[in-house]
Amino acid sequence: MVKHALLVGWLTLGSAGCQLFGTHAIPPDGGDGGGDSGAAGDGGPDAAPDAAACQPGDRDGDGVTDCAEAADGDPFTDPVVFNGLLAVIGDRPEVTGSCSNLTDYDEMNGHFQGATRMNVRAGWEFDTDADAYNDPSYGFSPNWGSAPSERFSVRFTGRVNLRQGGMHCFSIDIGATGTGIVSGKNMCAQVYVSSSSGMRRLIESGYQAESATANVACLMLPAGDYPFDIVFWYFNIFERAKLAVRWCAGGSSMCTPSQPLTTAMLRAP
């Protein structure tokens, strides 16, 4: 149950941890965004095999060889588990690109039930004038074979590995400077961390977002891997399609998100 405290900017998210808003400021395997939130940081279900016994090639197809993943000492980069995210093309936004179309996890999930999906090791960061998502400027790897032009939506879903416990802060940037139809770019982007049915996004930016400062927030979480989603709801073809997510780990205090998400810290469902 979500309980609102009186302290400005704080929101307790059940056992998942505490959320602190900064002053700056798909269905995947059942569609529930992942398994147990707040899991202890054991790096996932499969331990990496010994590097000396690695097999040549790239069995999971994530662009990193089995031997490299076996030798890096990180069980989260398993040679048979895809590091990256599952990209799901969702409903085409109609009328506007408002964040009001993505009020909570369930409504968001309902927009991404289609079969156009694939595991990607890149594509969740772009800044381009192109409005067809298979344009090389979007950076999808692998790329889509075809894509309609103009408006579209995409969800990146999987798990994020947070290697240390404490405060974890995230930010999202689509070029919006406010929440109006012009200042909000008539589009919306959100990030969900350790979310499930009935919960709201951690951060959002764009037209009719909660506020201009809702694009930065922090969560207090133990070390472990958590359900993770990035959503981009693009309607305004007269604006650049831009998406950039940053994060940081601040220990016991807030930090300024400045690090891009790496493939090694992400797992597709």
Structural account:
The chain is mostly beta strands and 269 residues long. It has two helices and 15 strands. Strands 1, 2, 3, 6, 8, 11, 13 and 14 form an eight-stranded antiparallel beta sheet that branches. Residues 1-49 have low confidence and may be disordered.
Summary?
This protein is mainly β and 269 residues long. Helix content is 4%, strand content 32%.
The helicity comes to: under 10%
Which CATH-level-2 architecture?
Sandwich
Termini separation comes to 26 Å
Quickly count the helices: 2
Give the biggest beta sheet. 8 strands, antiparallel
Strand content: 25-35%
Residue stretches low in confidence (pLDDT < 50, at least 5 long) are 1-49
**Helix-strand string:** EEEHEHEEEEEEEEEEE
**CATH third-level topology:** Jelly Rolls
* Tally of domains: 1
Radius of gyration: 18 Å
The total of beta strands comes to: 15
Shape: globular
The structure class reads: mainly beta
> Mean pLDDT, rounded to whole units?
83
The CATH top-level class label? Mainly Beta
Descriptive terms for the model:
Jelly Rolls; 2 helices; 269 residues; seven-stranded antiparallel sheet; disordered N terminus
Task: Walk me through the topology.
Blueprint: E1 2-4, E2 10-13, E3 18-21, H1 66-71, E4 85-89, H2 105-110, E5 117-120, E6 126-128, E7 152-162, E8 166-173, E9 187-193, E10 203-206, E11 216-221, E12 224-234, E13 241-251, E14 259-260, E15 266-267
Antiparallel strand pairs: 1-2, 2-3, 3-11, 4-5, 4-7, 6-13, 7-12, 7-15, 8-11, 8-13, 9-10, 9-12, 13-14
